Amino acid sequence: MSEFVQFIQERHEQILLLIWEHSYISFVAVMAGFLVSVPLGIILTRTEKMNRYVIGFVNILQTIPSLALLGLMIPLLGIGAVPAIVALFLYSLLPMLRNTFTGIMEVDPALKEAAKGMGMTSFQILWKVELPLSISIIMGGFRTATIYTISWATLAAVIGGGGLGYLVFTGLGVANDNMLLTGALATAMLATIADFITRKIQNVCTPKGLRSNRAN
């Protein structure tokens, strides 16, 4: 235990830098995924013929092994943070796309008809009825994608993307348990913090009435 503490003390600057790199590539990938998947999910609720093909394609992306997808990025984008972010972006799409589509589709049709009867336009119905009622589910997808992405980002080190995976894979390569344990614990800590923050965001975004119903 003392060796582990000593290792952290000696390498704390490097560890903090790797935590920053890991957080950066994860954040950029998830936010890019959010900006793409939410509008795309909304569009798919309006185009029944397309939704099964698009969601099916994103499902296929999810089944590609992480290392295989990262390897595919090398001839296309080289090595470094950019190909790692692109790969993580592709992996982050499914939870947010699926939850956006599901959340909006599950809004009671009677409520949408009532809004239409009040003279609301399609955009007003989306903005004032569908999104407020589905935001909790959408943010649930965001929370899931964030946690998954932080875990997958460990593999970014394989293609020179940086992050805590450097400690994990280097520790494995040189049989350094302290390095391996530091990388694993720091990744778990980041995922736990991200889960806490995104859960709070989800609760804040959820309308008070829905929060009360969920609590009951």
UniProtKB/TrEMBL annotation:
Enumerate the transmembrane spans: 24-45, 66-91, 152-174, 180-198
Instruction: Give the record's membrane topology.
Output: Multi-pass membrane protein
State the source organism's domain of life.
Bacteria
What processes in GO biological process is this protein linked to? glycine betaine transport; transmembrane transport
Q: What is this protein called?
A: ABC transporter permease
Gene Ontology CC: one annotated term: plasma membrane
Keywords per UniProt: Membrane, Transmembrane, Transmembrane helix, Transport
List residues of the ABC transmembrane type-1 domain.
19-198
